[in-house]
Description:
The protein is mainly alpha-helical and 311 residues long.
Amino acid sequence: MPLIRKHRSPPAVDRVVQDLDRALAATIASPGPEEVHALRVALKRVRSLLRLARHTPGCGTPKRLRRRLDRLFDVAGRVRDRHVLLALLANEVPSRTSIGHFRTRLMKDAPKADDRLQRALRRHERMVEEVHAALAGGLGRSGPAAWRRALNKAINIDLRDAAEHLHRDDAADALHTVRKRIKHVVHAIDLWPDRPLPRALVRLRQRCRGAEQLLGTRQDLVMLRDLLTGTRKGHAADPVLAARVTARLHRMERRVRSELNALLPEGADHFVPSTRSSSALRPKRKTASAGRVAAGRSTVTVKPAARRRSK
Length: 311
């Protein structure tokens, strides 16, 4: 599906929209594990751009479009969960009998799920144009300074929200919410308008990426535990394997919380490091002649020239 450009956009917007366009076409052709994963990554980046637009004055996006993206992300997520569980079963379950039993259960509704995803994608083939128009008409016209302000605000809000869920949320899916917020931060840093990235943001991205990978491993174990304990609808339990995976999950939880406490200390209010060391962000020095200052046409203070020391 060719992308018709009616607006002029920054490279970051064009890159994200083109990735979505390619991912949609590939998944419609074949909803395999790699294609579905690429589609979900592209949808996440588009959603990060839409969230960024909400933090930029005059850059609102249609709520209807955001809801359609959310529904499509959920449909693709159910297919992706099946792919992840099949891979985990092959690595974690030593008994061939158990593998065959659970694989049969997972593959029972696979054709229907794949067909449902492909039909949803075909219904939303023009979504790429809608996303591009929504972004290019507002956020796409913003300059680098506006992007930095919006990204700084979005990153700080997401990390503050992640810290709130980490330290004060006792819900079972609190760490999953933390993971989603940290993913938004990584995508937001990838949209930063300056290249190379300021060192402070490079370090923050590395730490967030490491935490995101740990949280992803933990979430995979949660899904596998739910499958083995029979929590997932229509699946029988395997108590021995469930106990083994649960023990691994508890060890992983302790490691994850240790890493997150270092990244998101309790009581902190501002998490985005200063990026003024970057030449791209350093404000220009204002200069003015002594005549303009004397005439009242400039408010810049001119320091007197330093006297030479007599030898």
